[in-house]
Queue: 4 jobs
Job 1
Amino acid sequence: MDHRLALIGFGEAASTFARAAGWGADALAFDIAPARAAVMRDCGVRIAGSAADLAGASLVLSLVTADEAEQVARDYAPALAPGALWCDMNSVAPQTKRAAAQAVEAAGGRYVDVAVLAPVDPARMAVPLLLAGPEAAAAEALLRDAGFVNTSLVGAEVGRASAIKMIRSVMVKGLEALTAEMMLGAEAAGVTAEVLASLDASERPRPWAEKAAYNLERMTTHGLRRAAEMEESAKTLAALGIEPIMTVGTVRRQREQAGKPFERKTV
């Protein structure tokens, strides 16, 4: 790398990237948690003593927690060198990224919306990155120079990459939550093996475009009947002592897709 790379936030993502890419002393890292200094030393990166140390970086990767992303941009953007690229790699809503972009750009930096589409471990430097914003192409060149090998430009509007990530997460994280609710019920009822075997027997792989169209058609055509069935599923879980959080939401969405208002029922 012929540019200076700075990392704000040195948690799992930053440390994974630093080790995998072997940035060593070419990277400067800053984290508000003093305990992270030991991890930085282990990765061989230089430790920033304050935000002022960021002034020499031409590429900054913001890798903090979602609730800190906007405030970190506001707090540290004034320390950026003019024209420095701020790659916001945090999992936040498009409007949060647009607010962070305003802070960075007001300070003379260049903001890039970056969405990380998979766990950083084991993907490491091959993790899919979506880039959006007017400066996305410039950032892509520097990110590839830094060792990232799976980058894609998805638009010139800040927030577009984040929208893809956040909406995709509705399914990915929602399936995890649905799985938990199903398994809690199956274990409580003593029917885990049978439920899983039934799902295996009915599963048919298909492209997501086809699957989404099929699911939506089922809901608009049979949403009321399906909602009534899911109300009974909610009762089943409640009787087993499991709060049917996801299932009650399914009742509402099925009814709405069928054109009927949602009425919460006691279960």
Job 2
Amino acid sequence: MAPPVPVHATPERDLRVASGWPMLFLTAGLHIVGVLFIALAGGTFGAAMAARVLTGVLLQLLAVLTWFGYFTLQPNEARVLILFGRYIGTARQSGFHWANPFYARSRGRVAPKAGSPVVSEPRNKFAARRGSAGLPGFQSLPTKLSLRANNFNSETLKVNDKRGNPVEIAAVVVWRVDNTAQAVFDVEDYGSYVEVQSESAIRSIASRYAYDHGEEHELTLRGGADEITHALKEELQVRLSKAGVVVEEARLTHLAYAPEIAPAMLRRQQAEAIVAARQIIVHNAVSMVHMALHELDAKNLVRLDDERKAAMVSNLLVVLCGTTEASPVINTGTLYS
């Protein structure tokens, strides 16, 4: 089932831009023609000379302006084209291109988080360089976006599971940008948005299930790895669809009890393991005793009354269920003497 699309989602427009190679020859031609106009403007000063010089200067300025329209795109890379605040479209074709020189090179700046100290380093790898010198700490966001798959490794989070036990959990999320318009215009900084929403989704999943030892047929974090992975991926996709992001994979990388309760939980697990082992031992011991009595009766080796059978069952259970080796005792008499 496809994830729900936000009501006010910005639709992406695929825009094909001109190749940069023909425009490169045009720019060179403008430079050459402009120089010729200026060079051939010699002679007495007059209206004709002024017109040639003015034309040459204008051609040079036009040629310089065209240089700002060149850009390159690598495979799995896109550029959002914005003209004076208006979204024109998205260029996705890799190669050397030329577009309107007035298309914005930056889609805005991101201010530091409220209450945090101003730093000169970007908050995350998706933010570009710092802003101008007059705006320290502000980060310019480029119009070029990477469409490649990205990994987000969350920090180890401490969360209370469904039963209130504190657990430590971490996950890795593989994601990529699918809708560039939503990534640019529907959220402020899609890189930070992915990080925050991923941690929120991990906390939500951890609090929704018990760590282990749930009720009968109950899904747990420890016992239902595949189901938990699927649930986490769906939770992330619902949250990140607003930013035009597609979640490729999401898996837990760390799951453990918090240190303050880990020793107690370990003792509980050891006790449960011992009880489970004893149950298997007793079940098999009873089966072996039953088989021994049945074989004795079937082969008519010895006739045992109820009292002797009880004594034999007791001895066999002690031997089979004991934690240490049994010490044989030779009985020289009978049970009745």
Job 3
Amino acid sequence: MSDATGSTGLGARIARRIRAEGPLSVAAFMAMALHDPEYGYYRHQYPIGRDGDFITAPEISQIFGELIGLWCADLWRRMGAPDPVTIVELGPGRGVLLADFLRAAGTVPEFRRAMRLYLVEASPVLRVAQAECLAAAAPVFVADLDAVPEGSLLLVANEFFDALPVRQFVRCRNQWAERLVAVDEGGRFVFVDGRESALATALVPAALRDSPAGTIAEICPSSAALAGGIASRLVRHEGAALLIDYGHGVATPGATLAAVRLHRAADVLEDPGMADLSVHVDFAAIAVAAVAAGAQAYGPMPQGRFLTALGADARLAALCAGAPRDRRDRLERGLTRLIDPREMGTLFKALALVSPGLPAPAGFEAGL
């Protein structure tokens, strides 16, 4: 562990808060590390790409964004081709997914003309990249989903839910207790256990409550709230949301909170604001929240199977036809990375949230 002040002012700011208020929840620590208005990771870092801290599916293969664009075009037709239709991406990265999405959507000109593009992005650094990449589409930047106008909606969130703050709980002798972040005598950030209580126990998923002592469970209230908000929109107006992320389909024990810096694992508590923090997404909890708000949920389905069902292999063949050998190799390596179970094909999953009454969207017809 590092000194609490770390190498930035954020460590000192968090330490002062802890000394004034007491230990912070893991969610509060994570929120400050990522979103502090002055020092937060997403306020000043350029996280994506080979020169950043991590790389995402759209950066690996153009096929990813193209298939999502065609998936949305198909749904738009099933919805009766509303004009206008609001296209929203949560956390659009560098804009690469939507650039590929829009190119594929251009094959359905009436869909492309009906689109109104809204980007939910907190990072000023990434907004600059998105504005440049997507200038021709005239995107509108908003702070959150509440700022998106009402109406027919098609929403995409790729690796967005994994960055939402989680609370952690640890199984003690009789009950559960919340795991907290404190400052030790040496000025370092450390994990400590709060007091075990019936309230903490009630917050842990029922399937995990009888776990052995020492077990850690994570919950993400903001994830459930966002899923409920999306679902409420889908009840009011026809549409769908496609959520793709890494995570599990059922409640699973264990601490998944991790830090990445320059494509390598880092200490979660060291130098807050300097590394990306993320967790494995609980797709079951998202689906439960969405269904409770009135939407239909399909999945989660392994990413590899989902992309294959949408025609990833056929798209690869079309792109490779007549292409130079080095380009064919890059295209093949990229798609393999996305669909191979040993790489991103199984850990990453797709979940669709759909307005009540709409049919199962493409790729989910088997009732998964």
Job 4
Amino acid sequence: MCWFVWGGGGTLKNAYHLSRNGLNIITLPKTIDNDIMGTDVTFGFDTALGIAVDAIDRLHSTASSHHRIIIVEIMGHRVGWLALGAGLAGGADAILIPEIPYTIDKLAESILERVSRGKRFSIVAVAEGAITVKGANKIKALEKKLPNAEGELRAGLKQQLNQLDSQYRGSTIKMAEELQNITGLETRVTILGHLQRGGTPSAIDRLLATRLGTGAIDYIKNEQFGIMVAVDGDQTRAVPLQDVAGKINYVPLDHPWIISSRNLETSFGD
């Protein structure tokens, strides 16, 4: 008997534990966050990306007619694939992602520079896991202490990390207030939330899911279990669960989407 499992990072970890305990497991990478290691892309990502881009397109009308800053909070957990892709495709003027810590002053500076050029509105695409430079530095300092910590000390450090995470991430409302105070421009927030997780799947996601599902048949025939069926160009390949479980696919800082955004003078708040 073979068990199919599809889902994101947490699901992969559970699947790996089941596999280690003797179940014949084959997983498929499904998450809107696109944060699974070992595969070119996950199915669900393209659909969510399209929803986010459509939202940014619609918000351009309000931003331009009312001369506002509009902040669009986009899902993605602790990685920036969705916000980056949607911001670039939707023509956002600033994009904030977890991989590139920001400062509110740098973000405000980029918006005021647009104003000086006669641009009377700005769209800011913000990943829900975006973090300030101050927060990122504090978290890194604590993370360095974790490997040598044990018992109550380790538990205390983890609690502090959770507190810092809550304090410096996901503060979109606070960001809007600070931007409005610094720039003097009316600032509004749109949080897309779980709207990105529903709706009709895109054609690309349907084709991708079908390709992965039918590709898994060959691995079943070969009794190859304990794997994730990954996208590898135009092909699929089997990736051992132990190689991907618990690992996160962050946006590389030299990714073409980041390079293209910077070439378009899109601000990352850094």
